[in-house]
Design goal:
By secondary structure, this protein is mainly α. It folds into 3 domains: 260 residues, no CATH class; 244 residues, no CATH class; 93 residues, no CATH class. It contains 20 helices and 2 strands. Strands 1-2 form a two-stranded antiparallel sheet. Helix 1 packs across helix 3, helix 2 runs parallel beside helix 4 and helix 2 runs parallel beside helix 11. The chain is globular, with a radius of gyration of 26 Å. The model has no long low-confidence stretch (mean pLDDT 86).
Length: 607
């Protein structure tokens, strides 16, 4: 039976988390050599293409995969298997149209964007990434369908294939294009007696001019790897569906009622998706306003009372001046320095959220199914599981990040050109670490509200949160005594408003009463012990074995941090077991989980 093949919320989430972790690792393996090969200029072309691609992709994809997952889960729960298949067929048609529209918008915007906003060298990269909007949209019909059937494996595998395609094809194309271009330059200069050469159809007279021709096409090769990865991912999902299908048996389809008309299904799908598209638009507009208001108000703070700002960040400023990386008489340059320092911390802000988002994706079809058949027990269990496991992951990770903020930044940036900014970035990373549990639960609460049919609430919460965020930017960032740290406050308030709004609404509508001691209290106590252990262990080890930050990344500072993390994880796990903070279902998702659970139950260590 199809229902026997369903994954539990945690099993599905674990599969997605494993896929996401692999994708992140592959992403690092892609970006490090990519930056080495392209350099800052070529990487700029690559990034500029992504800056245009990302919002168009986000808006094109917003809502529809969630709508498909929700509708399929509800129909399966009501034994309307033919309706579930009809949802899939309709979604393929809608995604094809949306994907083509997104690709056309990106192609149309490419020329004015690269002429008036980004460098003209970004044009080949933008053109090469445009088709991936279509392929990503089309594959989302398959992903949404399988997620609705509570089978997260195809989604996870397709994500890894997509990332591997980007890694292998992208890097290979970059290396090939650079090699061909440099070969044409060398051969041309040799043939002309060091006067000129023709590289990719253009005449150049120096290596600098040759690079200006080669790098845009090399960046395009890297981006083309993204498109090829999306094509390969599509092929996997199509072949997988043809080979394995959806698991519905003939008797289920025969006994299923006649499906609704495709037009009615399409209208319902769009009705569910529209609020999420609006939410994505609000979020993208908010990010644009956020970037502009923070930088504008930073300039106000600097112009109002530069001495106060200097007093706060004097060590960093003086070190940057000593290294000829900052001119204190140039206020726009000082503003860029503070904004760049803030951006360094943004790399860590969504690390944990990327993991917990998968809980929301996995929970959505399970909760939608339970809600459709009015199964109060499963509804309560799903909501509690998502919140509890999110806290089990986010609390120790966030508090640990805050405790080890300076060592982490020193390991990553202590030897580079950004080393002097560590004193500015550390308080930002501490704040984001402490706010991690709030940020980690934001998207899962969105998903759960969408599952119970209240797609309007996440839109309202984002709008209210955006107003608070922009107000905080205007009031706090413009204050010389707070300056860049006001942007952190604004972001934390943004997520606090969203989570409070969402969570209160979710529990009120679902009539679920959460056992807060189990869900939040116990993990919080253990996470505090984890953070204290990490901070104390790292402090002791660095005193005993001082690190030489002039050496490579593999120095005693790195070793001390790694040992501190291992000790902190051990303390967290042991303390959770001692206060019975782990439930049986949390253990069952682990390899040999049944055996581990029986052993822990024998000693009374499970809650």
């Amino acid at each position: 039976m199809a229902t026997e093949k369903k994954q539990s919320v945690l099993n599905g989430a674990m599969m997605l988390m494993f896929g996401v972790i692999l994708v992140k690792v592959i992403g690092v393996l892609f970006k490090m050599p990519l930056t080495d090969m392209l350099g800052a200029t070529g990487r700029g072309y690559f990034s500029s293409a992504y800056e245009l691609y990302t919002p168009i992709f986000a808006i094109s994809m917003a809502g529809l995969p969630v709508a498909v997952s929700k509708m399929v889960a509800e129909n399966v729960a009501l034994n309307r298997f033919r309706d579930a298949r009809m949802v899939f067929r309709v979604s393929q048609r809608i995604f094809t149209v949306v994907g083509l529209a997104g690709t056309l918008v990106l192609l149309t915007a490419a020329f004015p964007y690269t002429r008036f906003v980004a460098s003209s060298g970004s044009l080949p990269a933008v053109l090469c990434v445009a088709p991936s909007v279509f392929f990503c949209c089309y594959m989302s019909a398959y992903r949404g369908y399988y997620e609705g059937l509570r089978n997260m494996t195809p989604t996870a595998i397709s994500q890894v294939i997509e990332a591997l395609g980007k890694l292998v094809i992208g890097l290979a194309l970059v290396k090939l294009i650079i090699s061909i271009g440099e070969g044409q330059y060398a051969d041309g200069m040799l043939a002309s007696g060091n006067v000129s050469a023709t590289v990719f159809g253009k005449t150049v007279v120096s290596q600098t001019e040759a690079n200006s021709v080669i790098l845009p096409w090399a960046a395009a090769g890297a981006v083309l790897g993204v498109t090829v990865g999306s094509i390969l991912s599509n092929l996997f999902l199509i072949i997988n569906y043809k080979r394995k299908g959806d698991g519905f048996e003939r008797v289920q389809l025969v006994n299923s009622p006649k499906p609704a008309a495709s037009d009615d299904i399409a209208k319902n799908m769009i009705k569910i998706a529209v609020p999420m598209v609006v939410s994505a638009l609000v979020l993208n507009v908010t990010n644009l306003i956020d970037t502009s208001t923070v930088q504008a108000r930073l300039m106000t703070a600097l112009e109002t009372d530069f001495d106060t700002v200097m007093k706060m960040h004097g060590d960093a400023f003086n070190a940057a001046v000593a290294n000829s990386r900052l001119d204190l008489t140039n206020l726009p340059e000082v503003r860029s320095y503070l904004w760049g320092s803030y951006s360094m911390a943004l790399d860590f802000r969504s690390l944990v959220s990327t993991i917990t988002i998968q809980l929301g994706v996995s929970a959505l079809p399970a909760l939608a199914a339970a809600w459709a058949v009015k199964d109060k027990t499963s509804t309560k269990s799903t909501i509690e599981t998502v919140i509890r496991v999110s806290m089990l992951i986010a609390l120790p990770a966030g508090i640990g990040m805050a405790a080890l903020a300076q060592p982490i930044l020193t390991i990553l940036y202590g030897r580079g050109e950004s080393a002097d900014a560590i004193s500015v970035v550390t308080p930002i990373l501490v704040a984001y670490g402490l706010a991690t549990p709030i940020m980690a639960i934001s998207t899962p609460t969105n998903n759960m509200l969408q599952a119970i049919g209240r797609t309007d609430i996440p839109v309202k919460s984002v709008i209210v949160g955006a107003v608070f965020k922009i107000a905080c930017n205007f009031i706090l960032v413009g204050n010389p005594k707070i300056n860049i740290y006001g942007a952190v406050v604004g972001t934390v308030v943004f997520y606090l408003v969203i989570v409070a709004f969402n969570l209160i609404s979710l529990l009120r509508i679902s009539k679920v009463k959460v056992h807060w001691l189990s869900v939040f209290g116990k993990p919080f106590i253990c996470a505090l012990l984890c953070g204290v252990t990490a901070f104390a262990a790292n402090g002791l080890l660095t005193r005993l074995f001082p690190a030489d930050t002039t050496q490579s990344i593999l120095n005693m500072g790195t070793v001390s941090a790694i040992i501190s993390v291992i000790l902190a994880v051990a303390v967290y796990a042991i303390s959770l077991l001692l206060i019975k903070g782990i439930a049986r279902e949390d253990v069952l998702v682990l390899p040999k989980g049944e055996k581990i659970a029986k052993t822990l139950e024998k000693y009374g260590l499970l809650g």
